[in-house]
Design brief:
Layout: E1 6-12, H1 16-24, H2 26-32, E2 38-41, E3 51-60, E4 63-76, E5 82-89, E6 97-109, E7 112-123, H3 126-157, H4 161-192, H5 196-206, H6 210-233, H7 237-258, H8 269-286
Antiparallel strand pairs: 1-7, 2-3, 3-4, 4-5, 5-6, 6-7
Length: 304
């Protein structure tokens, strides 16, 4: 089955010349595009020749994929739009991509510029490469779309790409941290071991007898596991962080009311919950207006 080319489109509130500069100048391009770590233009004999270049992409610490590229030409149309065609490839067998072709298009719009790309590539390793591409192609599409949104925010809001990516990575780490914390605390002390302290604290707060409190602890554990799942599935992480900014102080007060002696325990809920509360605040601040691949159109429509 023939696979569809990767298509990404985004509106940018800026003149074509501004978008062109940050996408065609190598030292600016490599700042926002996840697909390239470095881009080096090679000398050419005349302005009419295609622009050849070399690129590198860091795929892991100490591992790079190096490749070549050639900008076929720049075409200006009467309506003011521009098109830049590209031929690229790599000889390194670590890369699933052998070579490919595509283009960038810059179209004047009422509020600025519509910036879009479409590209396709040939894979190596035959059938195995084709199967691998079932995962790799969506990942490349996602990386392209995320990069386009980072570019858009750089141009419109003047937030540097490095700052945007740092916020995105830190937010992802915070997401995984809270997923682990809620999953662990719901699963281990409440469902798997049913710690006596958990039962005792719930009994003190609700005046339940021990059997009822044990069932209550199981219910709380299930709720915490469900909340952990929300950290993976729910997109609006700031909603979850805001909720935690309320829950952690309440949880701390409840623990102290149920058993004041916990304030002197090692890893007391007072310091533990305070730490998580501060991390929630930091996460809430950093997660505001994060770049996202979902800002881009991923299917071509009409003449766009």
């Amino acid at each position: 089955m023939k696979k569809k080319p990767i298509y990404v489109e985004i509106p940018i509130q800026a003149d074509i010349d501004d978008v062109w500069l940050k996408t065609q100048k190598p030292e600016l391009h490599e700042q926002w595009d996840l697909r390239f770590s470095t881009i080096t233009y090679l000398p050419k004999a005349s302005a009419e020749e295609p622009q050849s270049f070399l690129y590198e992409t860091k795929v892991a610490p100490g591992i790079k994929v190096a490749g070549w590229g050639k900008s076929i030409g720049t075409h200006n149309k009467k309506d003011g739009s521009k098109t830049s065609s590209l031929h690229f490839g790599t000889q390194q067998r670590i890369s699933p991509i052998a070579e490919g072709k595509g283009y960038w298009q810059y179209i004047p719009a009422a509020n600025g510029t519509t910036f879009l790309t479409q590209y396709d590539y040939k894979v190596r390793f035959g059938v195995t490469g084709g199967l691998l591409d079932l995962i790799f192609r969506p990942l490349m599409g996602w990386a392209t779309a995320l990069s386009f949104d980072v570019l858009k925010r750089w141009i419109e809001k003047e937030e540097l790409p490095r700052t945007q990516y740092n916020r995105l990575v830190i937010s992802a780490i915070i997401t995984m941290l809270f997923f682990f914390i809620w999953l662990y605390h719901g699963l281990v002390p409440k469902l798997m071991t049913r710690q006596s302290e958990e039962v005792s604290m719930l009994s003190s707060l609700t005046f339940m007898d021990k059997p009822a409190a044990e069932q209550g602890v199981v219910l709380v554990g299930l709720l915490e596991i469900i909340f952990a799942a929300f950290w993976l599935l729910y997109r609006e992480k700031r909603h979850l962080l805001a909720l935690q900014m309320i829950l952690f102080p309440i949880g701390t007060m409840c623990a102290l009311i149920a058993d004041p002696s916990v304030s002197s325990h090692p890893f007391t809920p007072v310091t533990f919950n305070a730490s998580l509360w501060v991390i929630s605040i930091i996460g809430f601040i950093l997660a505001k207006d994060l770049p996202t691949a979902s800002s881009c159109k991923r299917k071509r429509t009409g003449e766009s």
